[in-house]
Amino acid sequence: MTMSNHNSKGVMGVLLAGGKSTRMGRDKANVLVGQEKMLRVTRDTLVSSDVRSVSIVGASIDENDSSSAIFLQDIYPELGPLSGIHSAMTHVAARNKEAAEDSQVDGLLIVPVDMPGIEPSLLSRLATHGQKQSCISCFKLIDEVMYFPLYVPVAEEIMLRLDGLLNRATKIQEVNTASQQSTKDQSLSIKHFLNDYPVEFLETNMKEAFFNINTEQELSMFNAANR
Hints:
Elements: E1 11-16, E2 32-33, E3 36-37, H1 38-48, E4 53-57, E5 70-72, H2 81-98, E6 107-112, H3 120-133, E7 136-141, E8 144-153, H4 156-179, H5 190-194, E9 199-203, H6 216-225
Parallel strand pairs: 1-4, 1-6, 4-5, 7-9
Antiparallel strand pairs: 2-3, 6-8, 7-8
Helix pairs in contact: 2-4
């Protein structure tokens, strides 16, 4: 895996916002965290971590978004976070072919929309480490691995493997639909995908920063704790 520089300006922030929000019962990206939509809160945190740019994958384009965020759609819809990572990396790979060397993106700093409490300092630390070591990186809380936020180097091998997995999953999905079956493809989990790569873990004790909001109850808990 190659890289062009060792500062966070070579990193694109990726906000994953294409989930089904089944447990919430409504689009998580648009629920209010305090007085702001969760998507905007998490986006602003990514911007504050000093990344080169931010892409938002899977969300509807917000005409009122005054930021310079790039809105992308999943190339392989409804296949989870790996699909969002693949779409962002595909976009970056195409962009890098046209960009000058000093403006290329060599890593993705990936955050799901439902982590509005993540700290910019944690994101900056993760991006700096991952970019310096040119390796996939995430955090560990004592003995618990936190798979998000996640740093992934932009590498053709990773992109091709993602494309192969997602293409296969799409075909399985089509067969399941035709036969009215519902078989979950375990190979699409982040944990399963990372098993095939060396991953570096950064220790932290900031457990509250990794709080996920998946339900109305969790949203109420987060808002109450952050008044």
